[in-house]
Amino acid sequence: VQLQASGGGTVQAGGSLRLSCAVSGRTFTDYALAWYRQSPGRDRGLLTAISRNGRHTYYSSSVRGRFTISRDNAKNTVTLQMMNLKPQDTAVYFCAAARVYSDQDLGIREYDSWGQGTQVTVSS
């Protein structure tokens, strides 16, 4: 499966950004999808994930209530809506996918297909 992320940019603190990821190459609805981010000097970390049918989601405590993940199974896309952005949200953001047979454990599953990152910069 191939993933292509877009939508990064620079925004002031308190602002919003919307990231999109186009997925191709396999049956889209066989995959759970996720967004990660990586800041300089830090490991890549899981932010949020969504199940195959979109009914189940996982959010890390750092973004719960500010970020929303969604997917469009007709358009083979996954979206990350980011609100109330903070300078500490500055990072490279990655979309990822995992071929799954269950909608359980979204937050601890290994996502092994990756798109290229997109830079998000939040200025204070």
Give the amount of beta strand, in percent. over 45%
Average of per-residue pLDDT values? 96
Rg (C-alpha, Å): 13 Å
Count of DSSP strands: 11
- What portion of residues is helical? under 10%
Secondary-structure class? mainly beta
Number of contiguous helices: 0
Account of the 3D structure:
By secondary structure, the protein is mostly beta strands. It contains no helices and 11 strands. Strands 2, 4, 5, 6, 9, 10 and 11 form a 7-stranded mixed beta sheet that branches. Strands 1-3-8-7 form a 4-stranded antiparallel beta sheet, with no helix packed on it. Strand 7 (67-72) and strand 8 form a beta hairpin. The radius of gyration is 13 Å and the shape is globular. The termini are far apart. The mean pLDDT is 96.
Q: Which helices and strands occur, and which strands form pairs?
A:
Blueprint: E1 2-6, E2 9-12, E3 17-24, E4 31-38, E5 45-50, E6 57-59, E7 67-72, E8 77-82, E9 91-99, E10 113-114, E11 118-123
Parallel strand pairs: 2-11
Antiparallel strand pairs: 1-3, 3-8, 4-5, 4-9, 5-6, 7-8, 9-10, 9-11
